[in-house]
Design goal:
The chain is globular. It is 13% helix and 38% strand. The chain folds into 2 domains: 47 residues, SH3 type barrels (Roll); 204 residues, Fumarylacetoacetate hydrolase, domain 2 (Alpha-Beta Complex), CATH 3.90.850. Helix 2 crosses helix 5. The chain has 5 helices and 20 strands. The relative contact order is 0.23. Strand 2 and strand 3 form a beta hairpin.
Length: 252
């Protein structure tokens, strides 16, 4: 099943399930209640598939990248938060602010929380995951380490549009079977297996739920692996995860 949010020709925002070539409106994310007639995909504009209350991003969660960087494997997620204004969806223009300096893409698998959870064990965490989406976690390297006394994770990753997600939330997937790719102007720049994660999605959800209550719609970006690279205005950057889809944005 694939969940999506979109605007109709009348300007109404709807959420629902993609059925063949249409979006079937539902009462809310994960709801079985149908609220209207299907709307052809050709008549809608996709939005970020969810508006998260919390947008959490992980660092150092892939073995290949950790080994190359000489980093130890974490036993608890190393994470940051993105502000709601960083959210962007399919087809967005992501403007690189002058203050950001050198900016890199980071293609990632995103976990979408489906039910409220607090301090849950790993064996219960899988049930709390609604599904998965594509994430592009843009990062300003020019800002991140500009002040040697304080790495600026929030500012470096929090500019408007620096948290692109979409195009849909796919359910029923085995994360271990997924591959994350990034294409820049149609050329592959990043490709890695999700199975190389250090902490698995259920472990991530369980551990984070001991730090904070996770709510339906919250997004957790699982971190990236090797291949993240700089982007410039005019480039088209596309995160592709077979089984989920393609998330394309244009750098402005």
């Amino acid at each position: 099943m694939k969940w999506a949010r979109a605007t109709t020709p009348a300007g109404e925002a709807i959420i629902g399930v993609i059925v063949q070539d249409s979006l079937e409106p539902r009462a809310g994310l994960g709801s079985a209640t149908v609220t209207g007639a299907p709307v052809p995909l050709s008549q809608i504009t996709l939005l970020p598939p969810v508006v998260p209350g919390k947008f959490i991003g992980l660092w150092n969660n892939f073995k290949a990248a950790a080994e190359k960087g000489g980093h130890a494997h974490p036993t608890h997620p190393l994470y940051f938060l993105k502000p709601d204004s960083a959210l962007a969806g399919p087809g967005a223009t992501v403007t690189i602010p002058e203050a950001a300096g050198r900016v890199v893409f980071e293609g990632e698998l995103g976990i979408v929380i489906g039910q409220t959870c607090k301090a849950i064990p790993p064996e219960a965490a899988q049930a709390a995951i609604l599904g998965y989406t594509c994430v592009n976690d843009f990062t300003s390297l020019g800002v991140l380490f500009a002040d040697p006394s304080f790495p600026q994770w929030t500012r470096a990753k929090g500019f408007d549009g620096f948290g692109a997600i979409g195009p849909v939330i796919a359910t029923g997937l085995d994360w271990r079977d997924l591959t994350v790719q990034v294409l820049v102007n149609g050329r592959e720049r990043q490709s890695y297996e999700a199975s190389d994660m250090i902490l698995s999605p259920p472990q991530i959800v369980s551990l984070l739920s001991h730090d904070m209550t996770l709510n339906p719609g919250d997004i957790i970006a699982c971190g990236t692996s090797l291949g993240a690279a700089p982007v410039k205005p005019g480039m088209t950057v596309e995160v592709v995860i077979p089984g989920i889809g393609s998330l394309s944005v244009v750098m402005g």
